[in-house]
Write a structure and sequence with these properties.
Helix content is 18%, strand content 37%. It has helices at residues 46-54, 90-102, 144-149, 184-190, 226-240, and strands spanning 3-4, 18-24, 33-39, 60-66, 74-80, 85-86, 109-112, 118-124, 127-133, 137-140, 150-151, 156-160, 166-170, 181-182, 194-200, 208-213, 244-249, 255-261, 265-269, 272-274. The chain has an 18-stranded mixed sheet that branches. A two-stranded antiparallel sheet has the order 11-14. The chain is globular.
Length: 278
């Protein structure tokens, strides 16, 4: 449901700001990941955005407004958790696209992320697709700390992006990834990268399974992570030559994410539904 948003001090922040709540990647009875969208009529300073995000710790807060020189197809978007700006937020971008569809925005549209990276949103036969930049994965040495932080331990490692990018840890397909015990404090002390745990989907209806940990960025374990699925599409694509994937994130909430490799991007999609507090 849409509503007007108060400022942190209790007064009206923007009389024309429409606020909506969404569940994203919630297919097959999965809880998905929550996002709150703020459709703004003017740019909001970072401090105001972060104050509002701290008031909504259970959901990612996504603020968007028409970009300068608006042609109806370009929108500035900033996604925040309670602690930080999120540089890439697949579920947040899908929620923004769904909110824009209620405003009769014409697809395709381009979202300009916090660093002004263009994120294309398209409509396909299965719904909305977010095109995230493709980040190539490279094999890496399995860190010694990872063999202590997880039980059972992973069997191999890879990396994607820079020193604050992604560390990918793979488990044997026989391992129940949801039951792997995780030392969050050790991850936070040992890795500047977000850690993506994964295994092949053998014995399931999915191409791969995953979990995501980024305690250095205020996220001990994310319910469902579009950007991690984008990274893993490249990782598993290199191994098996696939271009289309259906994955399940094995968090307590759970979620289902579709990904598709293109030459320069990874298209992420999944169910987006309006969410109301019970």
């Amino acid at each position: 449901m849409g509503n007007r948003s108060p400022s942190a001090s209790g007064g009206p922040l923007n009389a024309d700001m429409d606020v909506r709540d969404w569940r994203v990647f919630s297919e097959d009875g999965q809880g998905g990941n929550r996002a709150r969208t703020f459709a703004c009529t003017r740019p909001l300073p970072a401090a105001e955005r972060q104050r509002l995000a701290r008031q909504t710790p259970a959901a990612t807060c996504c603020f968007f407004w028409a970009a300068a020189g608006d042609d109806g197809r370009h929108y500035q978007v900033h996604c925040h958790n309670a602690q930080n700006v999120i540089q890439r937020c697949g579920h947040g971008y899908l929620a923004v696209a769904r909110a824009l569809s209620l405003q009769d925005a014409s697809l395709p549209i381009t979202l300009l992320a916090s660093d002004n990276t263009p994120i294309t949103i398209e409509a396909t036969g299965i719904g909305l697709e977010v095109h995230l930049p493709r980040i190539p994965c490279q094999p890496d040495t399995l860190p010694v700390w990872a063999q202590s932080a997880f039980s059972p331990a992973p069997v191999s490692a890879a990396r994607a992006g820079d020193d604050e990018g992604y560390l990918i840890l793979e488990w044997d397909p026989a391992v129940d990834l949801a039951r792997v015990s995780v030392g969050i404090a050790m991850i936070a002390a040992s890795s500047r990268r977000a850690v993506v745990a994964t295994r092949a989907g053998a014995g399931t209806d999915f191409d791969f399974l995953l979990r995501y940990f980024a305690p250095r960025h205020g996220v001990d374990e994310d319910p469902v992570t579009g950007s991690a699925n984008a990274v893993l599409a490249d990782y598993w694509g290199q191994q098996h030559g696939q271009t289309h994937f259906r994955a399940r994130q094995c968090s307590a909430t759970g979620g289902v994410v579709y990904s598709r490799l293109t030459d320069h991007s990874v298209a992420i999609s999944g169910q987006v539904e309006a969410w109301c507090k019970p």
